[in-house]
Amino acid sequence: LERTLSIIKPDAVERHLIGQILARFEQSGFRIAAIKMLHLTKPQAEGFYAEHQGKPFFDGLVEYMTSAPVVVSVLAKENAVKDYRTLIGATDPAQAAEGTIRKDFAESRQRNSVHGSDSVESAVREIAYFFVDTEIC
Ligand code: ATP
């Protein structure tokens, strides 16, 4: 089965939405194969978003991602990467389709409640960023 990396971001954790968001993952056919809560350090957030270094929103993104704990998980399903992106919706909640997690919960383009890997290659890299193989069931 394909795997993707999910992050429930600080805005959602602060608003006590962890349970509701995890329920949506499971209701949508994803198996939670690994999960942990952590408060990202600045170097951890900068490393995770290295591809965005130099962009105008980078510093704000790192500040936001380190502002409160996050919940990182590995989700398993056929076509997990693509199906998870469909489930969460567009980056900007104003553009997100009805019924998506970002449409229902996100506050802004930055504070958009969840992250999902954008390709199978990114998923492999992002999963390894947070989990060792023995932590994935
Ligand atoms: P993610 O990678 O978190 O799933 P994404 O792939 O939809 O989101 P990216 O373009 O990779 O979006 O941007 C990473 C994150 O940076 C976004 O989820 C959002 O939190 C923030 N971000 C992206 N674009 C902007 C922007 N124009 N202004 C503010 N924040 C932004």
Structure in a nutshell:
The chain has 137 residues and is α+β, with helices and mostly antiparallel strands. Helix content is 40%, strand content 19%.
Structure description:
Belongs to the NDK family. Homotetramer. Residues 1-137 form the Nucleoside diphosphate kinase-like domain. The chain contains seven helices and four strands. It is of the alpha+beta class and 137 residues long. Bound molecules: adenosine-5'-triphosphate. Residues 57, 61, 91, 109-110, 112, 115-116, 118 line the site of adenosine-5'-triphosphate.
Question: What's the arrangement of secondary structure elements?
Answer:
Layout: E1 2-8, H1 10-14, H2 18-27, E2 31-38, H3 42-48, H4 58-65, E3 70-77, H5 80-88, H6 101-105, E4 114-116, H7 120-130
Bound molecules: adenosine-5'-triphosphate.
Catalytic activity: a 2'-deoxyribonucleoside 5'-diphosphate + ATP = a 2'-deoxyribonucleoside 5'-triphosphate + ADP; a ribonucleoside 5'-diphosphate + ATP = a ribonucleoside 5'-triphosphate + ADP
Subunit structure: Homotetramer.
Pfam family, one: NDK
**Which geometry do the CA atoms define?**
globular
- Global Rg: 14 Å
Secondary-structure element pattern, one letter each: EHHEHHEHHEH
Q: How much beta, percentage-wise?
A: 15-25%
Mean pLDDT: 98
Task: Please bin the fraction of helical residues.
Answer: 40-55%
**Low-confidence blocks of residues:** none
- The secondary structure category is alpha+beta
Counting DSSP H or I runs of 4 or more residues, the number of helices is 7
Strand numbers in spatial order across the main sheet: 2-3-1-4
Kindly report how far apart the N and C termini lie.
Answer: 12 Å
Largest sheet: 4 strands, antiparallel
Distinct ligands? adenosine-5'-triphosphate
How many DSSP-defined strands?
4
